Amino acid sequence: MANLKTLYQDLLRSFTASNADLKKCGALLTQLKLGLIENGLLLPSGDRNLDDLAVARDILEIGAFWSIRTKDVPSFDRYFSQLQTFYTDFGSVLPPSAREYPIRGLNLIRLLTQNRIADFHATLESLPLRADAIADNPYISHPVNLERWLMEGSYSKVWNARAEAPAEEYRYFVDSLMGTIRNEIASCEEAAYDSLPMKDAATLLFFKSQSEVVNFATSRGWSVDLNNSTINFQKKGEEKIEIPKEKLIQADLLYARELEQIV
């Protein structure tokens, strides 16, 4: 356990540095998780030393934040799942963690990005918070507001929420939400317009620069007219179905002759 705490202190220094070395943090986390497994602390049960549990929880919480900073959502999912034992089974005996609700909030936004609305509400209801306390908790109220604005179609509020994120890691998931929203808006534009001025398209899609609009348009297969600063949407023509008229006529005549023979 002594070696585990030494590695933990090294991780803490590396992660909280002004210019965190994420690669080093990843290597330390790998070693630390092996150490947690060896000491029975990755998924603890029964009577355990509270100091050891607090260290194990802190390691996994740093791992959850590290996952978002490295844009590894499956890794975040694993860390969050492992933290549930500490938050649920040992939550009443361990001292409160300042990282717990930021991580719970990140998990709620993750569910929104995956359009898992039922899971979002189930997870929200399972939080050990009163309804009035949710509004006072910036880490939980932020995803709650995002979900409401998404249901209302208030996409501008979702966009503005990026600047109001209670933690830097939240912006990663808000950006992911905006990617989904942009594609929905783009599908509506394709159906409603033949073309749009580039400036209007940028406003509708929440882009700040022409290059962002051009890159997005290219990914959607739109035609960009830089001379006139317009975007032309590629209309999908109605599928033409070739009807084999001669074969149908021959088949009908054959069918009619067979009917005459039967009669």
The CATH level-2 architecture of the largest domain is identified as Alpha Horseshoe
Cα Rg: 28 Å
Order of helices and strands: HHHHHHHHHHEHHEEH
Total of helices = 13
Please identify the structural class as seen in this structure: mainly alpha
Strand % is: under 5%
From the N-terminal CA to the C-terminal CA, the straight-line distance is: 96 Å
Helix content: 55-70%
The averaged pLDDT comes out at 89
CATH class of the largest domain reads Mainly Alpha
Name the strands of the widest sheet in spatial order.
1-3-2
Low-confidence stretches: none
CATH topology of the largest domain: Serine Threonine Protein Phosphatase 5, Tetratricopeptide repeat
Query: What global shape is seen?
Result: elongated
Q: What summary fits the major beta sheet?
A: 3 strands, antiparallel
Total count of domains: 2
Secondary structure: number of strands:
3
Domain PCI: 74-250
Keywords: Proteasome
InterPro entries: 26S_Psome_Rpn12, CSN8_PSD8_EIF3K, PCI_dom
Family: Belongs to the proteasome subunit S14 family.
Explain what this protein looks like in three dimensions:
The protein is mainly α and 263 residues long. The protein folds into two domains: 2-42 and 49-197, Serine Threonine Protein Phosphatase 5, Tetratricopeptide repeat (Alpha Horseshoe), CATH 1.25.40; 198-237, no CATH class. The protein contains 13 helices and three strands. The chain has a three-stranded antiparallel beta sheet with strand order 1-3-2. Strand 2 and strand 3 form a beta hairpin. Helix 4 (73-89) crosses helix 5 (100-113), helix 5 (100-113) packs antiparallel against helix 6 (117-125) and helix 5 (100-113) runs parallel beside helix 8 (138-152). The longest helix is centred in the C-terminal third of the chain and has 23 residues, at 170-192. It is elongated, with a radius of gyration of 28 Å.
